[in-house]
Amino acid sequence: MGFFGGVFKALGFESETKVKKNKKSTKATYKLNSDKYSRTNQIDGVPVYYPENLEQLVEFVEFVKNKKAIIISLQDCDKEMEVRINDYVRGFIKGSNSKIVNLDENKLFLLLPEGMEIEE
């Protein structure tokens, strides 16, 4: 409340109650479906991309190079392609000083450009 808040309250002035804002969570609401036509386009305003091969992934990480956060979903990839994409993304992150946040057990990744942070 503070000193002046106590003085104002003693004089009969009601102080405004402050509403605490909740910090944003790193957890996103999302739904992974096997149906290709019901893919999520965005999660909390961040675009979601579904690479099916390494050539598409190279195009998608260009967004991170251009200082835009993206989400990569591996829901439609077979196991071998998941490993290759995961290796590529981890190498890209290390080489570009970007960050990666695992949103779902090795199926959904948030890629953050250098200098961009998320609130926890």
Structure description:
This protein is an alpha+beta fold. It has one domain (22-112): 2-Layer Sandwich (Translation Initiation Factor IF3), CATH 3.30.110.150. 32% of the residues lie in helices and 18% in strands. It has helices spanning 3-10, 54-65, 79-96, and strands at residues 42-43, 46-49, 70-73, 99-104, 108-112. Strands 1-2-3-5-4 form a five-stranded mixed sheet, with helices on one face. Strand 1 and strand 2 form a beta hairpin.
Question: Quick gist of this model?
Answer:
32% of the residues lie in helices and 18% in strands.
Q: Topology, please?
A:
Layout: H1 3-10, E1 42-43, E2 46-49, H2 54-65, E3 70-73, H3 79-96, E4 99-104, E5 108-112
Parallel strand pairs: 2-3
Antiparallel strand pairs: 1-2, 3-5, 4-5
Helix pairs in contact: 2-3
Sheet having the most strands: 5 strands, mixed
Low-confidence stretches: 15-37
Instruction: Report the total helices.
Output: 3
- How are the strands of the largest sheet arranged? 1-2-3-5-4
Average of per-residue pLDDT values:
75
Can you tell me the overall shape? globular
Total domains: 1
How would you classify the quaternary structure? Answer: single chain
The tally of strands reads 5
* CATH fold assignment: Translation Initiation Factor IF3
Please state the CA-atom Rg, rounded to the nearest Å.
21 Å
Order of helices and strands: HEEHEHEE
CATH architecture: 2-Layer Sandwich
Instruction: Name the structural class.
Output: alpha+beta
Distance N to C terminus: 26 Å
- Top CATH class: Alpha Beta
Give the CATH superfamily: SepF-like protein
- Fraction in helix: 25-40%
